[in-house]
Structure to design on (1160 residues):
């Protein structure tokens, strides 16, 4: 009797331990989130206050410019801004449709690359001159390419002069101001009585502008947004089918049915353990590695004006995809429709999750262990190496190796957040996963630190704008952990513990709301205080005059600049075709 | 055989007629909504461009002002705005806590009213002097009241001098600028690096300010918002119980059980028809008439700074209450929880509504007919008359009859929208209701026109800001009509018609989204174009100097102004106690 009481007491004590652990871990996580949000906000303000003058702080992108008959976009912009922003308006650059021009330039660049390849084969260092079997063929080829290149250059010059005429103007322009505060005035106060005209927004860094965006009309962009939305949903659902197939692989009988000739090998104990334990995760990782590029392609079609905007949107899509496809799909078994039906029964969600989540603990532990190798391959850059070797062999897809690689935030951040989600949700039900997740994070810390400092070169600097994505992902993981804990205590017939846990997600969401009001506006816009202080600091500096004269031409479309052929065509490192 | 085919053909034709009617009525409604939104936006801009200078266009309400130790709110405001808005900043008025002061002034006003009553009884025109039985008693009373009034005035003066000292300053101020554009700069661009400090918003009309709001602290306001939210939900649910009781009254047996002594009367045919047909609607109307005041009280506690803001919020609450309690509660029978459960089964909603809505058609026809009498009582102002008579008899609650009444938008607009909802939703299933609804609208048009031109005097002018509420209410009615129509066609086993109707709510919501982008911003803020044009127009006018000197004192709290007693206390029309 006593031993029964003691045993049941122990079990109950352990559950109350889990209960208090839920509160403690939530409190610690929220404290760390607050501290980090505050720290990064401070860094962002410091970055702004200590930066040298940047074109994007003084420039505004204006769209939906109404043009009167017979007038041009350029005249309309000039008139409007001289009328209403006379003291701060500096200059403007109208955007032109340059889709055709860009295609011509791409073709010309490809031909130059092929020419360079041929010439490098022709004069390799130390090759005997005996190899003239194909020299005559190569000479013809060189002549043909050079003729084609000259034709292309002629076309490009014609297109450029066409594009500068009014009929290829897009109703959009980059407008530059003499002060940051002047630019902010144009962005945050609606310009026109008709809200669909003279729409203004922040301009991106000139090197960060995604020029092909402007070559589509408004209707094409609207339709693209809708198509992209449907396509992302379809991709997520299709991936679920693949994940279900992967789950099915864990059954040896299935494999033996599909691949009977391997039956003998499969029956060896080691092989069967490897396949059932390791193979599903490997396949899942392999397939998942293609999805970031597809999501980035979708974001490209959605009409963003900057590469950083495309990557942030792709990061959000990848986060939703990763959490749904890797976590929920592997946890909720059954058909796709069956999985979606769980959301029609909100009351059943905690108990359902509390049943299925612990059941998949071993799968996810394996998934985390598999990810150690993907972290290691990040260090060795295996994927890039393989791609480079493939490119050298095939001679068809040669990547531009002159620029250093840059960090793919849209694939890395969601992956890190996924492991955060796994750690937090399995913390209550299966704490065994924690050491593996911690090893992943430790490895990741050192490896990413090395990569970011020594290997990758940043393509753009958003000033911390990816942080809110991380914050929101972590809040979501916390609330999911609470829901699972409520379900677990419900299943263990401890309604008191269940109901005492209900305030926890409410408090977490209130905390998130506070952070949204306290910090998020800093990531969307700079304040009057900061803008005016910075403007006053720089007013008297002599280098501002030079900056403003450069600003006038900062936002010219690179495709519109006059091209020049490099005279020294033996030099492999200089691009043959470059803009002035 | 032929007759069967013809009959079924007729039935099918009628259904297709209803189907096309759904499309036509939606198209006509959307066209009218677009035209009206455009017209009212145009009127709003015209109102702005033709208005004389108004204090609220030049003033900004600043809240959450950070105060350094030893400093005052006034100094902090002055320093901040001279630093960052030096060219446009004019003056500021700090808000003080005046709750106690207002209570003292109310008491003094009440005593003055009582004194005036006594004196009017003492010297009624033409009364014989024989009524001196109570004169000595009245003299004592007059002396007592006058002594009390002097004490109160002394207290008021002391409180006013206290309040002007720093310790009763609220961290909020009205800041005035020299131009509308300057004020807009302060509102739409975040002022401080810390988003929770120096929060700015539009200031209301000085006469429209709801001063008691400022006397509560930030935490009190936050808690009030939460309490108000819960209280409105509770009110709506409680009202549903009352509505269920009303439904029960339609059963004569219930009445005979509760009131057995009336059995003989109830058995008369006319009486029983009157009771079952008319009484439920009358009771519903009577109870509903108290709810607007309760909702306005809730809005008052929510922390709005202007009376127009309170009424707009009360209008939204009343709209939700009216639609839920009068429409849904009477349509979905069963317990409150049973009714709420319908939302957990989204797929069942169309078919469920298609069954229950037609069943209540007769109830709503009666409801519309009853409302004709409430429209008529609007014309005769019966409620005000009864209240005035009651006040004269009771001598206790005498209303201030010196000010003309004003339109209660928060109760009238939701009522009109309810009849729009009834007309649109019953249009498909029971078109018999349409003539009654049209009579209501015709009566309403003439009666409200008369009231607004000849009877009511506006308390405030929002410039059309109630229109988006009407637009959203109508869009909701249209979508509800579509859902019911989809359910009806599903029940009649016409899946083709059902699925052809599905694009209709989608298109309606897309239309609403377009209107939200095209027109709604005009109702939230004026554009740079309008502000700068208006500023330039007035720059050279001589009356602006006088306007600016008045602007400096426009936002003083009326409770803080020095009081003066009117010397001629026989004059009944002049208020005895008035501010300078």
């Amino acid at each position: 009797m006593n031993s029964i009481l003691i045993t049941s007491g122990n079990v109950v004590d352990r559950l109350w331990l889990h209960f208090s652990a839920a509160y403690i871990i939530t409190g610690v996580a929220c404290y760390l989130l607050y501290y980090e949000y505050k720290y990064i906000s401070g860094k962002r303000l410091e970055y702004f206050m200590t930066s040298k003058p940047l074109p994007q702080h003084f420039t505004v992108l204006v769209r939906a410019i109404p043009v009167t008959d017979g007038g041009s976009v350029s005249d309309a912009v000039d008139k409007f801004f001289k009328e209403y922003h006379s003291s701060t308006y500096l200059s403007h650059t109208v955007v032109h449709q340059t889709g055709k021009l860009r295609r011509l330039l791409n073709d010309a660049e490809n031909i130059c690359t092929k020419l360079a390849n041929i010439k490098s084969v022709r004069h390799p260092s130390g090759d005997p001159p005996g190899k003239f079997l194909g020299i005559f063929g190569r000479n013809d080829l060189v002549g043909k390419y050079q003729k084609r290149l000259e034709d292309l250059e002629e076309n490009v010059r014609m297109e450029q002069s066409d594009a500068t005429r009014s009929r290829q103007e897009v109703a959009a322009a980059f407008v530059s101001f003499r002060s940051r505060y002047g630019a902010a005035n144009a962005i945050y106060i609606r310009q026109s009585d008709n809200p669909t005209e003279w729409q203004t927004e922040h301009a991106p860094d000139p090197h960060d502008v995604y020029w092909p965006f402007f070559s589509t009309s408004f209707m094409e962009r609207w339709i693209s947004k809708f198509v992209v939305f449907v396509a992302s949903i379809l991709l997520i659902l299709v991936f679920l089918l693949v994940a279900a197939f992967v789950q099915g692989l864990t059954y040896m009988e299935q494999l033996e049915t599909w691949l009977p000739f391997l039956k003998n090998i499969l029956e060896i104990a080691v092989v069967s353990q490897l396949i059932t334990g390791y193979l599903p995760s490997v396949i899942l990782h392999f397939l998942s590695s293609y999805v970031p590029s597809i999501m980035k392609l979708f974001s490209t079609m959605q009409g963003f004006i900057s590469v950083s905007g495309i990557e942030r949107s792709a990061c959000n899509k990848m986060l939703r995809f990763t959490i749904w496809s890797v976590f929920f799909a592997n946890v909720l078994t059954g058909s796709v429709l069956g999985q979606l039906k769980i959301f029609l029964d909100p009351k059943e969600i905690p108990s359902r999750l509390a049943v299925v989540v612990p059941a998949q603990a071993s799968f996810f532990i394996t998934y985390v262990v598999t990810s150690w190798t993907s972290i290691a391959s990040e260090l060795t850059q295996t994927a890039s190496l393989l791609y480079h070797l493939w490119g050298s062999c095939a001679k068809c897809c040669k990547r531009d190796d002159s620029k250093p690689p840059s960090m793919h935030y849209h694939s890395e951040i969601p992956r890190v957040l996924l492991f955060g989600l796994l750690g937090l949700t399995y913390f209550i039900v299966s704490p065994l996963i924690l050491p593996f997740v911690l090893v992943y994070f430790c490895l990741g810390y050192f490896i990413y630190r090395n990569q970011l400092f020594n290997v990758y070169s940043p393509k753009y600097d958003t000033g911390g704008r990816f942080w809110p994505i991380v914050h929101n992902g972590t809040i979501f993981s916390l609330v999911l952990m609470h829901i699972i804990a409520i379900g677990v205590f419900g299943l263990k017939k401890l309604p008191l513990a269940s109901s005492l846990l209900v305030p926890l997600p409410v408090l977490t969401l209130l905390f998130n709301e506070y952070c949204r009001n306290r910090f998020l506006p800093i990531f969307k816009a700079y304040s009057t205080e900061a803008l005016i202080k910075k403007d006053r600091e720089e007013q008297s500096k002599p280098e501002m005059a030079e900056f403003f004269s450069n600003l006038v031409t900062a936002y010219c479309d690179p495709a519109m600049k006059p091209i020049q052929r490099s005279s020294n065509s033996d030099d492999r490192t200089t691009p043959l075709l470059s803009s002035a």
Observations:
- Confidence is low (pLDDT under 50) at residues 126-133, 566-580 of chain A.
- The longest strand of chain A covers residues 169-177.
- Residues 98-119+141-167 of chain A form one domain.
- The CA atoms of residues 404 and 457 of chain A lie 6 Å apart.
